[in-house]
């Protein structure tokens, strides 16, 4: 079974057993989480989308805090002496999809 799920404003294509990194979710490693905002399901050729979808995606948190790549935003105006450097590392949660029901 295949599903497209909306997690923290982003859409993910998931199957049972998939492991993926999603934007940070509250919880600790080993906790079970459910995502009820399912947009699309495909169960062996029967396709449901929109209001017809009555599925829930269940997952388990593997690692509660994973930091992404360092991103640096550097602004500069030449010959003016203006330099500004900002940076951040986005936080993710590593989850494993256990079932789609």
* Structural classification: mainly beta
Number of helices: 0
* Order of H and E elements: EEEEEEEE
Radius of gyration over C-alpha positions, nearest whole angstrom: 19 Å
Oligomer: single chain
Largest sheet: 4 strands, antiparallel
User: How many β-strand stretches?
Assistant: 8
Based on Cα principal axes, name the global outline: elongated
**Beta-strand percent range:** over 45%
Distance between the termini: 9 Å
Give the overall pLDDT as a whole number.
96
- Uncertain residue segments: none
Strand arrangement, major sheet:
2-1-5-6
- Estimate percent helicity: under 10%
Task: Describe the fold and architecture.
The structure is a single chain. The protein has no helices and eight strands. By secondary structure, the protein is mostly beta strands. The chain has one domain. The strands form two sheets. A four-stranded antiparallel beta sheet has the order 2-1-5-6, with no helix packed on it. The radius of gyration is 19 Å and the shape is elongated.
């Amino acid at each position: 079974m295949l599903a497209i799920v909306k997690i923290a404003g982003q859409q993910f294509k998931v199957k049972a057993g998939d492991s993926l990194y999603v934007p940070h979710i509250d919880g600790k490693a080993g906790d079970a989480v459910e995502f009820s905002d399912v947009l699309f399901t495909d169960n062996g050729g029967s396709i449901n989308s929109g209001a017809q979808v009555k599925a829930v995606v269940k997952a388990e948190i593997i690692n509660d805090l994973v930091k992404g790549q360092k991103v640096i935003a550097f602004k500069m105006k030449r010959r003016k002496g203006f330099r500004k450097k900002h940076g951040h590392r986005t936080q993710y949660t590593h989850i494993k999809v256990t079932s789609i029901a």
